[in-house]
Amino acid sequence: xxxxxxxxxxxxxxxxxxxxxxxxxxxxxxxxxxxxxxxxxxxxxxxxxxxxxxxxxxxxxxxxxxxxxxxxx
Length: 73
Fold this sequence. Notes:
There is one protein chain. The chain is mostly helical. It has 2 domains: 33 residues; 37 residues. Helix content is 75%, strand content 0%. The longest helix is centred in the C-terminal third of the chain and has 32 residues. The chain is elongated, with a radius of gyration of 26 Å. The chain starts with a helix and ends with a helix.
């Protein structure tokens, strides 16, 4: 098998995979997907930031409690 044949085979497999993207079980989701508006993106960023801060605070409180109750004198 020559190098050209290998390249043609790879190209064929890639084009087959790309052509099947819109026909699989996730096609409906991909077709409905759209770019979020600036307002939606802003709200998502704020909610995500609040979640990160809450998780960080919980972790810090656990860290402080571990240091207070389980420190070796």
